[in-house]
Amino acid sequence: MNGGNFMSYVIGIDGGGTKTEAVLSDETGQVYARVLAGPSNLNSGSRESIEGTFLKIFSEIKNQQPELFQHIDYCFAGLSGTENHVNKEFIEALFKRLVGGQFPYLIEHDAVNALYSGTFGEPGIVQIAGTGSIGFGIDQHLNKKRVGGWGYLIGDEGSGYAIGRDALQVIFQHYDRNQKETILANLIGKYFEISGDLKDIVPTIYQAESPRNHISALSKVVFEAFDMGDTDAKSILQRAAKDLSKSIEMILEHFPLSNKQVVLVGGLFNRNDVILPMLEHFLNEECELILPKVEPVIGSVIAALQQINQKYIPLQK
């Protein structure tokens, strides 16, 4: 809180490899300024592009709310790629140059935003499963534990990519046994618009600009095959759910939580009617599986408020 101002004003930033969103908000979640900019992950963009992202964010927030910008209590930036110390040091130096002395700030992993989008600042676990996957937990002492998130060449178990990769492996195992006619194989052939031999998919994937995105997109096809009763699709999704349950349980082994809230974030959970029952089946721990209640950038607002000992008290709608 600043001076005679009874409200706390914070900036929350949620950043990734393709886009970064920032808001100026108060403890009720009311948004006074919002900016959408480019990438903020050095693993995906150049230093010049990252600098341009944050220059745009702070200048546009100031332009939208010049008076409130003078009363910022805190800024929290949850950014992917900041687990790399070199990346984090670059971002911290950039913030110091752009807003140093104007207000305090903290840079953390974007998983914090995702977690707080479901727990509203309370301890818990977030399991992210989109193109990639990562598990992340914060306990009551603000200790942090990460599991996975090592990228598709090393890990990403239970992710959209893993599901798509497993689907391709299965259909070509059937192909090698001359068992080409399966629901999953036919749907994947249609997805790639292959009218001839199934093996024609192979060059399409290997010559693609981003084979990873091509493969992860197949997760939707796997769900479609599951809906049609394909047993391979069911096995693939069960394997993904089992891998995600292992990620959650590894975090719980590191620090037991009295309130075992697990926030499920990412495109995979758009089909929570399928994944949630499977996840509940494989989890040995009693957990409360929840979906996000607010967007990730509001999760970063909650993290900023936490740094100034303020609670997030959303307005009743």
> Helix-strand pattern, N to C?
EEEHEHEHEEEHHHHHHEHEH
Helix vs. strand class: alpha/beta
Q: Give the total of beta strands.
A: 10
Radius of gyration: 22 Å
Give the integer mean of the pLDDT values.
Answer: 90
Total helices: the number is 11
Q: Which range best describes the helical content: under 10%, 10-25%, 25-40%, 40-55%, 55-70% or over 70%?
A: 40-55%
Overall tally of domains: 2
Looking at the structure, what is the overall shape? globular
User: In which order are the strands of the major sheet placed?
Assistant: 3-2-1-4-5
Note poorly predicted spans: none
CATH class of the largest domain: Alpha Beta
In the CATH hierarchy, the architecture of the largest domain is: 2-Layer Sandwich
- CATH homologous superfamily annotation of the largest domain: ATPase, nucleotide binding domain
CATH topology of the largest domain: Nucleotidyltransferase, domain 5
The N- to C-terminal Cα distance equals 25 Å
Into which percentage range does the β-strand content fall?
15-25%
Query: How would a textbook summarize the main sheet?
Result: 5 strands, mixed
Structural overview:
There is one protein chain. The protein is of the alpha/beta class. The protein has two domains: 127 residues, Nucleotidyltransferase, domain 5, CATH 3.30.420; 131 residues, Nucleotidyltransferase, domain 5, CATH 3.30.420. The chain is 43% helix and 18% strand. The chain contains eleven helices and ten strands. Strands 3-2-1-4-5 form a five-stranded mixed sheet, with helices on both faces. It is globular. The two termini are 25 Å apart. The mean pLDDT is 90.
